[in-house]
Structures are given as C-alpha cells and as structure tokens.
Amino acid sequence: MNIFVGSLPFSIEEADLRESFEAYGAVDSVKIITDKFTGRSKGFGFVEMPNDDDAQKAIDELNGATVQGRAIVVNKSEPKPEGERRSFNNNRGGDSRGGYGNNRGGDNRGGGDRGRY
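Structure tokens predicted for RNA recognition motif-containing protein (117 residues):
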C-alpha cells in the first residue's frame, strides 16, 4: 500500500520516517518530496508498505501523531486520475502573458523596406 504522509517537519530525514513506519511492519520505500531548486523538503512524502494490514495499522495509529512538535497527517495515497494535473495558467483562459506576440506595435527592426512587399 502506498501511504501519504503530510505536515512533516522540514527537518525530518527519510531514515527517521522509515523507522516510524517499520514499527508496524516491513517498509518497501520511503520518499520525502523536495523542492527541485532548493532541495528543501516540501513537508510531505510517501511510504510504501507491502502488507496492507500493517499499512492500515500504521495509518490508524500515526495519523495525528506528533513528530518533532508537528501533528502529521497519514492516509492511504490514491493516484490522481490522469486528467487532473495541475494547471499552470490558474484557469484564466487564453494567453494573457503579454510580452512578444503578434501585437508588437509595428516592426521596429530597421533596415527600410528591403523586399518586404
């Protein structure tokens, strides 16, 4: 079972998270999600456990538990349906980025009218 773990302290290491879950059974993998530019933890991660019963016991007992002063959120991770990826245009519709495009206000590159007609 793939388990989502949120509200993690930014200082927690994957080894510490693994240890917390191994108290309930075998752990296949642990991944804390980090910012790709800074490398800093984003405060959430995923734990994979092969035994669903052990995983459910870990979820039941660790959800709301305090880790380094923070109450963590632990629940079964459900994969996102394919069509629900995050939109980067904030649903504004159209392209309102401005900048260059077809509305530059004329062609100011100079050079006269060499063969433009």
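The mean pLDDT is 84.
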